[in-house]
Design goal:
45% helix; 280 residues; alpha+beta; elongated; 6-stranded mixed barrel; 16% strand
Length: 280
C-alpha cells in the first residue's frame, strides 16, 4: 500500500491511497485498458491505474509522486474494476515494483529478482502435485488465494451472515403480510365458497395475485437498486453482479410463493357459514 500525491501538493486531502502491483508487461495479468496505453518494458515509470483515480483529478499523462519516496510514476492508461482492499490498483512493470518495494538496502535479503507470488494459467494444473515437486512452496487455486487476502474472509462472512438474516426476515414479513391480508378477506372468501367456488380456484387466485404483486415489487426494487448504484461515487467499493441480482430476486419470488401457501391453507379451512356469521 502507498499514497499518490497530486502534483507538488503537501496536503493530506490531496493524497490518494493506492495499491502498487508489479506484473510482467503484456502478460495475462495485465488488465485491458479503457483509456490510454498499456505497460511497456522499456518505460518502467509508466503505469496503468484504476479509473476511480479520475475522480481524484488524475488524467492520462499525469505524473504523481509516492508519499515518503522520491519516486514518481506517470499514468499511461486507465483500467476498470481493478482494486485491492478497496483502494485503487496501480499496475507497474515488475522491475519498477522491485525498485519501490525493496528500496531499503538489504530489504530483499539477498534474493535475486524477488516476487511475492507466481501466477499460473492453463488447464490440468494441480496444486498438490506442484507442491510435491517444488519444496518450500504453497500452491493454491485462485479462489483459495482470494480467501487468503487480509480481511476478505471476515468481511465476506459478515456480509453473507447479513444476507442470510435479511432473507429469513423477508420470508417472515412476507408470510405474515399475506396471512393478515387473507384473514381480512375471510368473509369475501366465505361468500365465494358459498356460491360454489372451489378451494383449488381460490388457491390459484391467491397464488397468482401474490406472484404478480411480488414480481412487480422485485422489479421496482431492482430498478431502484441500479438507480442508486448509478449515482454512487465510483470510488465506493460497490459493484452489482447481474447474476447475483437475478438469483436473489428469484429466491425472494420463491419465498413469496411459498409464503402464500400458508394463506391458501387458511382459505381452504374457511367455513362459509361461519364466515357469513350464520353459525357460532
Amino acid at each position: 500500500m502507498a499514497s499518490a500525491i497530486k502534483g507538488s501538493s503537501k496536503l493530506n486531502e490531496d493524497k490518494v491511497d493506492i495499491a502498487i502491483i508489479g506484473i510482467e508487461p503484456g502478460s495475462f495479468l495485465e488488465p485491458a485498458v479503457t483509456e490510454g496505453t498499456g505497460l511497456a518494458s522499456d518505460q518502467m515509470t509508466k503505469v496503468i491505474v484504476n479509473e476511480t483515480m479520475k475522480d481524484e483529478g488524475f488524467q492520462v499523462g499525469d505524473t504523481f509522486q509516492l508519499d515518503g519516496s522520491t519516486e514518481s510514476l506517470t499514468i499511461a492508461g486507465f483500467v476498470k474494476n481493478q482494486t485491492y482492499n478497496h483502494v485503487a490498483a496501480v499496475f507497474t512493470p515488475i522491475e519498477e515494483w522491485r525498485k519501490l518495494a525493496f528500496a531499503a538496502p538489504g530489504s530483499d535479503k539477498g534474493v535475486s529478482e524477488p516476487v511475492n507470488a507466481i501466477m499460473l494459467q492453463g488447464k490440468d494444473i494441480h496444486p498438490d502435485s506442484i507442491n510435491e515437486q517444488l519444496s518450500g512452496t504453497d500452491t493454491v487455486t485462485r479462489a483459495a488465494a482470494v480467501q487468503g487476502m487480509p480481511g476478505y474472509k471476515e468481511e465476506n462472512g459478515t456480509i453473507m451472515m447479513m444476507l442470510a438474516f435479511l432473507l429469513a426476515i423477508s420470508a417472515f414479513i412476507i408470510g405474515v403480510f399475506f396471512y393478515v391480508f387473507t384473514m381480512q378477506k375471510s368473509n369475501q372468501f366465505g361468500i365465494m365458497k358459498a356460491i360454489g367456488a372451489k378451494n383449488g380456484f381460490l388457491g390459484r387466485a391467491v397464488v397468482s395475485q401474490v406472484f404478480v404483486l411480488s414480481l412487480s415489487s422485485i422489479i421496482v426494487g431492482i430498478l431502484l437498486t441500479y438507480g442508486t448504484a448509478a449515482i454512487m461515487p465510483k470510488g465506493m467499493p460497490f459493484m452489482l453482479d447481474t447474476t447475483l441480482v437475478f438469483m436473489y430476486s428469484l429466491i425472494l419470488l420463491v419465498i413469496a410463493l411459498l409464503s402464500s401457501l400458508v394463506s391458501v391453507r387458511t382459505i381452504s379451512r374457511i367455513d362459509p357459514l361461519k364466515a357469513l356469521g350464520r353459525v357460532e
